[in-house]
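Researcher: I'm preparing a figure for a lab meeting and need a structural model of a single chain. I don't have an experimental structure, so a prediction will have to do for now. The sequence is pasted below. Please return the structure as tokens so I can convert it later.
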Amino acid sequence: MSRRLTPIAFLPTRWLLAAWLLLAVLPVQGFAQATPAAVPPPPTRTLLVMGDSLSAGYGMAANEGWVGLLADRLRDSHPDWTVVNASISGETSAGGSARVVDEVLRHRPAVVMIALGANDGLRGLPLREMRRNLARMIGASQFVGAEVLLVGMRMPPNLSADYTRGFEAVYRDLAKLFDVELLPFLLEPVALERASFQPDNLHPTAQVQPALRDHVWRSLAPMIGRADAAIGE
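Model: Understood. Here is the structure written out token by token.
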């Protein structure tokens, strides 16, 4: 007895639906297998700047300050880096110490630049308090794996000689204790030029901000390179 073949028109509807879905899926699966996996973008690294009005760009647009100019340079030379300027005019080391944990946990920076202390000195803050505040900021930064650039300041000579010397020593001692990079004096390129300062004789003008950027960059560039190399390992 010969076996009769069932015409396709008489196949159960569920079988036809299953066959149609199979034919529809197969080409897509084959294409997906032939397409190479997308290459993930390189990880973004963050430079976090915690400073006072000298870093916040007092008296000028934010992009005119040395931090804004530094961000432009990094954007051009290291596009996978971003700069977060968490500087606040009038900030003291106590204020930075109170904010640092939140900032480093939020941004997870690769490098933290701490440029505080000027307002402490102008207010005559006891040096032991300034030392404790800056030490907490360094420790919190290192806790999240960031390198630290400690940016120092100097006090005007009208303060006592002991206070002036002790003020500078705070930065040197902390840099040695925590083994971090130290830029001894942020305003070194312009400090002796009265024309470089705004009428208050405290804040540099917009015209000299590129000189401050270049001054900081000489200490920062090797740290950027080390962070990049660590990512590539």
